[in-house]
Fold:
Amino acid sequence: MRADRPSFEDVYRDYLGRIYAYVRAQVGSSADAEDITAQVFMNAYQAYDRFEPRMSTPAAWLFRIARNATLDHFRAHGRRERLRRTIEQQPVHAEDPAGMAEDRMQYRALLAHVAHLSERQRDAISLRHSGLSFEEVGTLMSCSEDAAKMLYHRALKALRDAVAGEARMSDAQHE
Amino acid sequence: MPSMSDNEDLELEALQRQLDDAFETTRPRRGFEDELWLRMQARRPWWNRLRDAASAFAGSIWEAPAVPLGVVAVLLIVVVGVGVLSSALRPNVESPTSLSEGAGSRYQGDQAYFGRLPSPQLHPGLVDHARSPAAAQGPSQPEFLGAADLYFGPANLTWAGTFSSSTIAAPVYRYVEPSADQSKALLGPLASASGMTVSISSSAPELPREPVWTVVASGAAVPSGSDPGVTANTFLAAHNLLPTWPDEVSVQAVGGQARVQFLRGFSLPDGGVAYLVNWNGERYGIEVDISGGRLVATGPLPLGLDEASYRLISNEKAAQLAVSSAPASSAAIQPVPTIRLDRVELVYALAISGGQGYYEPAYLFSGSFQYSGHTFVKRVLVPLVDPSLRSS
Structure:
């Protein structure tokens, strides 16, 4: 009996954008995000024969690969150094020289804040807003569903504080 | 009045919505999806491609129980063997187009990829409205029928021709729009030659037309001789303007006027040539008009071209698209004519976008019909690059 496995191209087309957004939120740089996303799908392509649809959804399977690739990236490059260079050389609003819509710029800024959270908080936010259930987030992060929920809500508050802190700094500079 | 807790909840909810929007709208740059798919295909081991092809073949006949397994095995061996031999003998040529092939399987691994391509198309609004001699002698003619008796309006189309080849292999070529200084440099000393007027025009995307040079010469600058073909050839050779691409020479002479055309072609992997057509579907290249000791020559700047392979649609799909295509013009003959498209030619057509021009393979279908006592021609251009790899 043939397994009910979608074609890899379908999986690729369906998930490329979401995986990219997840990685982008992790690394804060579109160039790095492209490199890592490419690596994710290269790895996934090679391993697709071993993907078992009855054991996992394509989303959970791909995000696991993406998470591992991102961690490898940080191990290889040094997260702090990478972030510092990213922020110094690529201010969030300078990536679109033609002037993107204001909300797009706000989203970029928001993702830059996500990239500054602790590793687990960053992961919880990124996985959850990439469309995964708390159960899937917990599985990927090796914790229970409830623990994933708590982690996510703490991350959300930390993110809110970071955004508010920047707003206060910006206001003080303008006064 | 909301409590502190209510306010916090509202803040967090707003933040969640922003995060949803941020993740939803953060996507890779345009073209990245196809570029990455290309790279992945290129890295696949050949035995995997072979296995997929065999699987697809087996799958297609799996539901025919009357086919003995032995026959299936023999067929598989033949198909795989032919495929291997074909690959070995033609390593740089695309495999035959087939609708059943998996997406991306026809990409050339290590070659450049230009991202999604603009679509070349015919532009009947740009037809020269001068009447053809034949049409001008006839009864009243609808104004939308331009030169060369072309009709671009609605029609009931059928396909009744044959393709010269069951396979299509034709790369896409790209040029990058040169700056004014680069254009001048490409013409060398001619750009500042005395006794002649030399001008350069940049690309005209609306036609479309690539960057062209135009030279006007008269008097001693025009080679003497009675054969316009020889005159044109001598003039172009003297100024290093002869085609650097495959060409076919066409000479038309009426009275003291002559037009010599060096029609531009593109080499195909199978050794053939496909000619470039303009917005009317007419071949073009370098044109030299000679009249009364005056010579006007115009031709494309000799730009360097990048080359890339794209997945192409099959002949069958192209024919389907030809008969179902929307008319290039709404100006219609009544009643709407029924036309049998019975000729097809592999051509190249230009499309320009973002400061780059793309010479893309296309099929030019054509068929003729009678209207008001005259024969008119219907042309349909079908770009061959897979629609999923085109931006428009």
About this structure: Residues 145-174 of chain A form the longest helix (30 residues). Chain A has one domain: 8-174.
